[in-house]
Each structure stands twice: as structure tokens, then as C-alpha cells.
Amino acid sequence: MAGAATADSLWEDRDVRFDISWQQMIMAPGEVLIDCLKSIEDTKGNNGQKGRLLVTNLRIFWQSVVFPEVNLSVGYNCFVNTTIRTANSRLRGQTEALYILTKCHNTHFEFIFTNVIPGSPRLFSSVISVHRAYETSKMYRELKLRSALIQNKQLRLLPKEQVYNKINGVWNLSSDQGNLGTFFITNVRVVWHANMNDSFNVSIPYLQIRTIKIRDSKFGLALVIESSQATGGYMLEFKIDPVEKLLKTSKEMNLLHIVFSDSPIFGVDYEMEEKPQQLEDLKVEQIEEDVEIEANEPTDAFVAYFADGNKQQDREPVFSKELGLAIEKLKDGFTLQGLWEVMG
At what angle do helices 2-9 and 243-262 cross, to 10 degrees? Predict the structure, then answer.
């Protein structure tokens, strides 16, 4: 079913993957290429290799120019923080670079990207700005409970959101007695709120809906919305009378769900002044470059990006006033509080 594929198979913004195939490079439905940065070095994992960095509304994707099969895809939902610090690049020497700390499946990875071309801030502005746009548009992609959704009995619309229908007399069957409320059906989500308490509400994006069905409940026929496994696989039941109104509502939701699944709206609204080429036009041809390859040295793409996983020796010990004991000196830009938050 199209809806289930959209909710549970979308990995582009939620995963970190190394050396992916061309099929996985192809953009998902609704994914948009925002910027294409050439001459970018993956300083941590492939120091000395020139590559390109694609910035989409869901992820960043780096690919080696010489070896296109060497690549990595990092979803914005995995980002923990981004900073600009000094790095040692074989192509640029000591220079400012973009550090990205990520967390995926309880594993932390660190990525360092350096712009080989001096004096170009696009690497920092593109990635940081698009990630910020992703972070501020979660209502499009995440199921939300008890949020500030309603103002003066009307739905607070998201950018590019349109209300297709407002349905009164909808009972939420999550409790034994039920709660009477109102449905708002839009082009990106379904919202219900209690009439007596606007803050008792739920916002369900089509992206997180597996199925919309009608089935029997202890209150009679009910509209059942099943959320994706990513949200916990909730079964949200609603009763609408009469039956004709229930059937009409179910049909409308399913149609809008199908339309959304074919062309999802992720809400990441950011445009570059200069439009990049489409991904299909950016296939990389093998180019002969003066690159030294150490064939006898074993490599592991997964291990290379572990956060602080490639250091050769311990850093000098220093006294920590916060802990009252000696600890290994932290890397530049890191704090004890920040590390506790990351590992929590």
C-alpha cells in the first residue's frame, strides 16, 4: 500500500549509510535537490580525495569524484549538532571545516567536510540553513500530541497547508467515555481536537499513517487510523455519526493519503538563488587524478567515522572543576554538558 511505503520505508532523513548503490542515491518521492557543492573533501574518512556534496531537503550526500562507489548519505534527523572548526586537510592544509556530529541506531558518527575552493562559504550556509529548515518543520513529518494547534477554534495552518474539510461531531474513543471534538482534514495531515479543551488534540501527518479503515468497536463502527511503526504503531479510533458521514470521511482521508504518498510534502522550504542540476544529470565519470592510494592498509568506512574513533593516542589529562577529578582534555568545541546531552 502506498501509504505504508511512505511511512515505514522512508530512510533518507533517518539513517546514516556508507557506500550506497546508485538506486539508493536516487531521490525519494518528495525529496528535492537544493544545492550541489563541487570540490568538497570528506576530511575525516577520505582525506585528500575531492568529491561533491549534494544537499537535499532530507539529507546530505557526499561522493568521491575518482571513486563514485565511495560515498555516504547522512539524514538530517540523525544530526546532533553542527559546528565550524579548524581541520587538517591534505588538499587545503589547516582550514575551517564543517563538523557534523550524528547519532544513528545508538551509534555516534562524526563527519568533517572541507571546501577545497578558498573563500567560499556555501558549504556552511547551505548545510546549516537547510538543516535548520528541517528542524523547524517537524509538524509535517511527526505525530504530535497536545500541541498548540488550535487558535480561536481554527487550525493554525502550516506554510503550504490547505484545509479541505472541517468535520464536527467526531468522538475520540481513546477513553472509556469518549471525547467529542472536531476533525480538520488538510493536504498534509489529519488534526483532531476536543471541543471542550483545545489543548487535548492530536496531529497525524499522512507521512506517519499506515492505514485508514472502518471497523467495529465497542461503540459501534469507528474510523481507525493506524500510525507507522516509527511512531509506535498506534491505533487511533474515532466515531462519526451517521454512517454515511463516516464512510464519506474515510473515503476523503484515503484519497488525500494516496495523493500525499505519491508526492509528499516534507515542509523543508529553502531555495538557493542558483538552481542546481537535477540528480539524474549529475552522474560522475571516472577521472584520472594524482591521488596516492595505500592499497595495503585495511580500511573500514564504518569505523572511520566513529565520533573520535580514529585518534591515535589519548589526549593530555586536565583537572575538571565540574567533576572534581582529572579527565582527558576535551576536543575543541566540546563541553562536558554537551557530551552528557549527546550520550543521554
Answer: 60
Backbone angles phi, psi at 183, to 5 degrees: -95, 140
Count of residues making up the chain: 344
Which region holds residue 137: left if phi is over 0, alpha if psi is between -120 and 50, else beta? alpha
Residue 76: all three cell numbers together: 538530517
Name the pairing type of β-strands 150-151 and 154-155: antiparallel
Q: What letter represents residue 169's amino acid?
A: G
Is residue 257 a contact partner of residue 206, using CB atoms and an 8 Å limit? yes
Query: Strand 93-104's sheet: what is its strand order?
Result: 16-18, 71-75, 59-64, 50-56, 33-42, 107-115, 93-104, 79-89
Between strands 93-104 and 179-186, the pairing is: unpaired
Positions in the chain whose pLDDT score sits under 50: 1-5, 277-299, 312, 342-344
| Residue 305 neighbours by CB under 8 Å, 6+ apart | 16, 18, 44, 45, 72, 109, 110, 111
Using alpha carbons, select from 54, 89, 90 the residue that is nearest to residue 71.
54
- Quick: pLDDT tens for 253-273: 999 999 999 999 999 988 766
Strands 201-205 vs 189-194: parallel, antiparallel or unpaired: antiparallel
Residue 204: name the closest of 160, 268, 242, 260 by CA.
260
SS3 call for 262: helix
pTM equals 0.79
pLDDT per position as a tens digit, 296-322: 444 466 677 887 655 545 556 666 666
